[in-house]
Amino acid sequence: MTHNNGEAGMPENTAADDVLELRIHGVNNMPPYELLDLDKADTELLMGDPLGSFWQPTADALHRGRQPQVEGIGRRAVVDPSESPRGSVPPGIHREAYSWGGMVRTMPPDGGKGGAVLAVLARACWTLVLPFSMANAGIWAWQLPTDHAGARFRSGLIRIFCVFLTLLLVMSFASVAMDMIAAQCFRGSRLVCTALPEVLSSTARWSGAQRVAAGSLVPIAVVIAVFVVTGGARLRYNVAGSILKPTAQDDGEPLLGQPRFWQTRSETHRLAITHLASAIAFVAMLCGAALIAAQLPGAGIPVIVVSALVLLVALVQAYLTDTMPFERVDASPRATVTVLGAAVAVYLVAAIVLGFGPHTVLDGYALRQAFNWVMVTTVLVSALLIAATLFFRVSVDRRFRVWHGFGPAVFLSMGFHVGLIWSSLVNVLIGNWLNGARSAASLAREAPVVDPRCLEAYCRTGNPDIRIGTFYPWLLGILLIALIVVLVYLAIGLSFRRDVDDRLEHEERANLTLPPTEPRSSLQGRLAGEVASKRAAAARFHLVEPVLGALMIGAGVAVILTLGAAYGSILPLGDMPPWVIAYRTFVVHFMALWIGLSLATWAVIGLAVIAGLVFGGSKVVRPLGLIWDLACFLPTAGHPLGAPCYTERAVPEVTRRMMWWLDAPAQHPGQRRIVLVAHSMGGVVAASALFALGNEKNGDDYRERVTLLTFGVQLRPYFGRFFPEVLGPGVIGTVPCRAPRLWARDPWRSDRDSVRSGRAVAVPSALPTSKWISLWRATDYLGFPAGSTIPNDRDRYAQEVDAGGYVGAVDTHSSYMRTPVYRSALGELAELPPRAPGAP
């Protein structure tokens, strides 16, 4: 429910406060009361809904925080002019908190038990489409052009890859429903998979072809569900058109300042329809293979040919659907609907023939072999599309781009490999569950299940003896070996000593705030070891780029080897050369034990992930949080079925709030002003909102009255390297950033040397703000300097030790707002008068 205090969104308790301090949280979805540094009862909803909302201190909390602090029970003496009681608001400032954590991946604050259940289901759904969001980031990672000339080939190629990523999801559920359950779990008139509900026993009287036709509805239902859920989310986030009224239309503006960037476009919806059409045509093709396995080649071959043509047209349609801001919009919506209609028609024909045609014997072994060929071919085409992106030329200095300019290939690989792991785990876990007492290793055997005639006639049998597609067990087995090798390599590199003291030689390293009863030197000495340890740990966490690169290389090698092994295992021996027969014999027999072990290992991992999603909550979601927020920051221009772009709603909401404040009359002589305060990923929302604000009719006037205060942000080393044309040095005005080094004692040593030598020079900022101050500390595992790794006018070092509690604590990624340097920066940006000693 939306709540609103005051006229035009203005709070009632701000009569004398002309500076808005608007706080935006980061990746961990800090609750509003924590963001305001108050008790829960001391905050109130100003406006918003469970997805995005604005909060403020209550009038009582504001009044208490501004009273002089005296010693006594419940009060702590103010021993430093820069100190204030937690949650106190300086006179002249109105403080608000913007909460956007309900978008995409977490639950809204105070959701209760019902909200917690919905949050678990939402996390499971968004985890399923996580590969799509990862791949979507790839379309923004190559060197984006300033106009449409020559742009379609690269972005179109990535859109085609994203369609194949959807087909991999379809294939994983099709193999379960159409092969394992419909074909293998029945012997004549018996249901032999006792794990399945008894209600399915009634389908045992059906023919194998009829059960396969019914099973084909499952992958289509999954894709339709994803289509509906993600489409509904896009509609809920599609608020830019009703909030922002931009006037600038110049293609030379930064992407974040262009009107088309923020609005969910009809092109994205058409692309989603194209994915749905591709998925349905793909299932129709699988039904055609089932018709051939049911000894109806006269019907199966035409179905395969027609469905393949429809799929080809859908791929062309995906290529031609312009979704990037620099592309021309010239695709016809009618053509997209026509392709969807053709896909539905060919599927209905295939399903009807399969379900109501002649009741012949369905060869389950032939069906599974056909599914194997389709799966490995789909994987091969996807891998070739990723390889094609390696040839995207980067004309700028590759040292300052992520993974030396191969960002698109790495992002696509991340989505590809995670999608393959998800698909393999789905097949392994379900196959192991259906198999009853048999071991996971039995899933990978190659022999036919039983005599094909037993699928239509009564045969005595024991355990279900379920087999899964050849690619899935081989991938998990080989991938486990590759990951072990890569992890050993990374463990050796990460175990080296880390020391960042040289980089901090000019920073304030002993800036502790201590109670009067404890000498500064005592606490500093007592916590020196913990400070050094957390600095070293943060330096290791900063190695995300080389770690992900190594993992993707290892996973890529595993996929290539798996393709060779899978093709080799399903090809008939025939007249193969002796060395090929020897290779296959070695792999099949001597790797069988390892594959069985890997299947069991991955099954445990899969169950742990599922249990963590249901019971673990944030501890399971948090490692994926950065990837989620990184990918979901960008509009869904590559893969439309991924998690929605949270900035498409968060940015317009923040922009509207700032416009309301700035356009209202000031209570004192002068004009209203804003200090936009952002933590971690909130810095991305804040920077984007500034561009949207600057693109409004009064943008030039707004620019002079808005300042920015960030802390613990990733703008320079992550977004600046991953997406330079969106948030790179020329956009926000930073020094181009070198990659961290895995084997260096200080990962950022090469970056610092590059800046000092003049090889990397600060670029003028296009960020529409009058002043920007950013705080950082070396113990922050997820935050970095915003301007440069050497001292500069923008970056200021924040205190690492918080002595405001009972014992001193070494802060890492949080508690910036409690430091004296934060209060000093806030006063400077808000142009507050000097504080009197003891003042709140």
UniProtKB/TrEMBL annotation:
Alphabetized SUPFAM superfamilies for the sequence: alpha/beta-Hydrolases (SSF53474)
Keyword field: Membrane, Transmembrane, Transmembrane helix
Organism domain of life: Bacteria
Transmembrane regions: 157-178, 212-235, 271-293, 299-316, 337-358, 370-394, 406-430, 471-496, 543-567, 587-615
InterPro entries, per database record: AB_hydrolase_fold
Protein name: Uncharacterized protein
Species this protein is from: Orlajensenia flava
Classification of source organism: Bacteria, Bacillati, Actinomycetota, Actinomycetes, Micrococcales
